[in-house]
Structure formats: C-alpha cells, structure tokens
Amino acid sequence: DLNEIAARVENYLEDMTDDAGTQTLEECLELLKNVGNGPSKKALEIYCKILLNIAKENFDDANQSMYTLTLLKKNFEEEFIEHSAGITSFLTVDELGAYLQGREAEYRGDWDAAMTAYEQCAAKADVLDRMMTIEGKQYGDAIDLIDAGRYDEAHAMLEKLAERNYSYAKQMLRDWATPTPRPT
C-alpha cells in the first residue's frame, strides 16, 4: 500500500545518518513496483530515486530525477505534505532540491555552497548534523591556515563561522592577536 511505503520513507528521513545505507530506499522502490499506477505512486517513486542517488553520490542521476519531480511538485506535495498538515519528515520538493545541492556541494568540498543550500532545509533529514560537521571542517581549515601563516584567509573564514554563531570561531576572534614575525 502506498501509505505504508510513504511511512517507511518518512522513517528513513527521520533516522537519516551518513551510514543509513540504501536498503530501505531500495526496498521501497521494489515495493512501489507492486502498487497500482497513478500520479502519487510515480511522485513517490521519483522522490525515492532521488534520495537513493544522493545516498550513492550519483548526483547527475539525482539532478535528472529532481527535474522530473519538480514537474510533479503539486501532486507530490498535495499527497505527502498537505495531507499530513505539514507534520511530516518529508522534505518539500524545494527543500529536497536544496538538500541535493548541499550534498553535491559537500561532495565537491565546496563548504560555503553546501552551507548556503543546507540553510534552506535546515530542520529536515540529517541537515543539522551535516552543517555541524562542515563547520567543524571549516574551523579545522582555519586553524591550518593560521598554522601556515595565512592569517587573513583564516580570519575571513573564522568571521564567516562566527556569523553562523559557531562558538569556537567567536572565541578565537575575541582572542585574535596579530602575530609578530620572529626576528631572524
């Protein structure tokens, strides 16, 4: 039944972690083969394909399916978002698009682009965990820049982190002193 499959996808999204694997999504896609046809079924199938391709880091396929889902947006959101009065772990089509952009940017190591995309869907799926991980990586990168003597770049990176209320960056900026080169 379509509602049972939708509930499984919701559970996947609620419990999403980096090591969530793809088994649940693959099972849902298999179960969808046995459900009658209709616009809701196809929309959920495309949605699952996008999540599966994101999990497998197949971003070209995910983007192609995302285009298809945007054409099915009204149907998907009426069936799976509005019928639940918005109380759902499903990402809206726009949020899923932002999540896809964020995951793809994160995969490329473009932390700023990933954070910008994730801010559009911050309360969904594993986005908050991903944002915290990226902030930790950016903080580490800033420390490496300081250690390499690239103070201006490090300061700029720490300021971006502080704007997002990253406490370690705020503290470091409060303690920031202009380094004095050692006499040689």
- How much of the sequence lies in strands comes to under 5%
Query: Which parts are unreliable, with pLDDT below 50 for 5 consecutive residues or more?
Result: none
Please count the helical segments: 10
Structural class: mainly alpha
Assembly context of the chains: single chain
Query: Mean pLDDT across all residues, rounded?
Result: 91
Q: What coarse outline follows from CA principal-axis ratios?
A: elongated
CA(first)-CA(last) distance: 76 Å
Cα-based radius of gyration, to the nearest Å: 20 Å
Number of domains: 2
Please outline the major beta sheet.
none
* Fraction of helical residues: 55-70%
Give the total of beta strands. Answer: 0
Write the element-wise H/E pattern from the N-terminal end onward.
HHHHHHHHHH
